[in-house]
C-alpha cells in the first residue's frame, strides 16, 4: 500500500511516499531554516506563506522521485496537529484538495505519532510495545507505545521542551537558529566540567524540566558580561549538552527498565550525538534494546507522516474534507 505523507507543522515543507509503513520510496524536504535564521527563530506568518509556495513543487518531486503519479497512491496522510496553526492549515488544505481532486482517502496524523513512526522506517524489526522519548523543538514526551495507534504519555517537559532549551541557550550564547546543531558543534571542543549547572528537580517520575538550566546559562553569561569577563562558549555548551542528554537518557532507560520494554528516541533532538551515545551506553549496561531513527529522519519529514498514516489507515482512521488543524493536541487524545 502506497501512502503519500505531507508535513508542514513548523519550518519544513515535506512530502514522501512510503510503502506499507516501512519502505521509503521517496522523501523531499524543503527547509525554511535559512530565512527564519534572520529573525532568530521561526516566524509563523513567514512559515505559512513558504509552505503554500513550496508544497506543490515538493509534492510533485516526491511523486516523480517515486516514479508514480497521484493516481497510484492509495491514500494521503497529513499532519493535522500539533504545530503552528497557519503552517498546519497549509498542509491540511492542500491534502484535502489532493484527495478531492484524485478521489483518495485522507488520513489525519498527529505529529508525534509521525516522529515515532520514523523508527519503523529505520528499524525493520521494531514492533510495539516499546518506550519512546519524542524530543523535538516543541515536545519532550516520554511515551509508552502500546500498539501502532495506541499511546500513553508517561511524562513530559513541565516547562521548555529539550529542543526549545537548546535553541534558547544557543541564542544566549549568540549562536544562530536552530540552536541544537550549533551547541552540539561547539560543545565538541568544550570541557563540560568548567561550568557547574544545576540538576533540575521535578515531581513526576518521568517528567523533565529544562528552563532552570536555560536560566543558569543566562545568569553565567550576564554575570560575566557585567564583570567584563570572557566566557568560554564551548565549555558552557558542553556543560549544557551534558546535563540535558544525561537527563533524557536516564529517564528513557529508567522507563524502559520499569516497563521491561525496548527503548527508543525520536524527534529533532534525537540526532544529537551525545544523546545517542549516552542512550546506547545506558541501554547496554541495563541489557535494554535501543532503537534510533536514521539521521535524516530525526527532523521533520513527510516519510514519518506517511508511515504513521499507514498504521492509522489499518486501524480505520479516515478524515472527511471538513478536517481541521489543531495547534495543540495530546498524542493519546
Ligand atoms: O522535530 P523537529 O525537527 O521539529 C519539531 O517538531 O519541533 O525538532 C527541531 C528541534 C530544534 O529545537 C533543534 O534545535 C533541535 O531539534 N535539534 C537538535 C539537534 N539538531 C536539531 N538538538 C540537539 N542537538 C542536535 N544536534
Ligand atoms: Zn517534529
Explain the overall architecture.
- There is one protein chain.
- This protein is of the alpha/beta class and 333 residues long.
- Helices cover 44% and strands 19% of the residues.
- The protein is built from 10 helices and 10 strands.
- The mean pLDDT is 98.
- Bound molecules: 5'-O-[(R)-(carboxyoxy)(hydroxy)phosphoryl]adenosine (KG4) and zinc ion.
- 5'-O-[(R)-(carboxyoxy)(hydroxy)phosphoryl]adenosine binds next to helix 5 and helix 6.
What descriptors fit this protein?
globular, 333 residues, 10 helices, 5-stranded mixed sheet, alpha/beta, binds 5'-O-[(R)-(carboxyoxy)(hydroxy)phosphoryl]adenosine, binds zinc ion
The distinct ligands, each listed once, are: 5'-O-[(R)-(carboxyoxy)(hydroxy)phosphoryl]adenosine, zinc ion
Report the C-alpha radius of gyration, rounded: 20 Å
How much beta, percentage-wise?
Answer: 15-25%
Written as H for each helix and E for each strand, in order along the chain, the element string is EEEHHEHEHEEEHHHHEHEH
Helix content: 40-55%
Mean pLDDT: 98
Major beta sheet, strand line-up = 3-2-1-4-5
Structural class by SSE content: alpha/beta
The first-to-last residue Cα distance is: 26 Å
Count all strands and give the number. 10
Biggest sheet features: 5 strands, mixed
Number of helices: 10
Uncertain spans, ≥5 residues at pLDDT below 50?
none
**Given the C-alpha coordinates, what overall shape results?**
globular
What is the element layout, followed by pairings?
Elements: E1 2-7, E2 12-19, E3 23-31, H1 33-37, H2 44-66, E4 75-81, H3 85-102, E5 105-110, H4 111-122, E6 130-135, E7 140-147, E8 150-156, H5 162-172, H6 179-187, H7 211-227, H8 233-259, E9 263-266, H9 273-285, E10 290-291, H10 302-314
Parallel strand pairs: 1-4, 4-5, 6-9, 9-10
Antiparallel strand pairs: 1-2, 2-3, 6-7, 7-8
Helix pairs in contact: 2-3, 4-10, 5-6, 5-7, 5-8, 6-8, 8-9
This protein binds 5'-O-[(R)-(carboxyoxy)(hydroxy)phosphoryl]adenosine and zinc ion (ZN).
